[in-house]
Amino acid sequence: MDLRKLDDEHYPAFSTGQAAELLGVEQPFLRSLDNAGVVTPKRSSGGHRRYSRHQLGLAGRLRELFDEGHTLVSAQRILQLERELAEANAELARLRHRLAEVEGDRPVGPTGGSTE
Q1: Is residue 67 a contact partner of residue 75, using CB atoms and an 8 Å limit?
Q2: Which among 2, 34, 56, 113 is least surrounded, fewest beta carbons within 10 Å?
Q3: pTM score over 0.85
Q4: pLDDT in tens, 17-52
Q5: Where is the HTH merR-type domain (predicted)?
């Protein structure tokens, strides 16, 4: 076995039982997410669900949102908006870094302008 795979957050390393235990949920909760197409685990050669760390993070976040009273539809929308915000923040950081390089390493303020 290649242990480096365990470093990959998308590697399907956890059975349904292990995933449920790690998240503190019941196995039917995870199966319901799969049936709804929200978190779709890989299948082992025997047909058993295998979850990745990334999928466990999504399932855990969904559990939090459900506990706050959100429906599946609203929880999915929140996750989508959180992903989009993270992508936008990453792009902003890349652009600020690039701007700093272009401006000759002058410090860049929080709005992207030079602090000079």
Answers
A1: no
A2: 2
A3: no
A4: 999 999 999 999 999 999 999 999 999 999 999 999
A5: 13-81
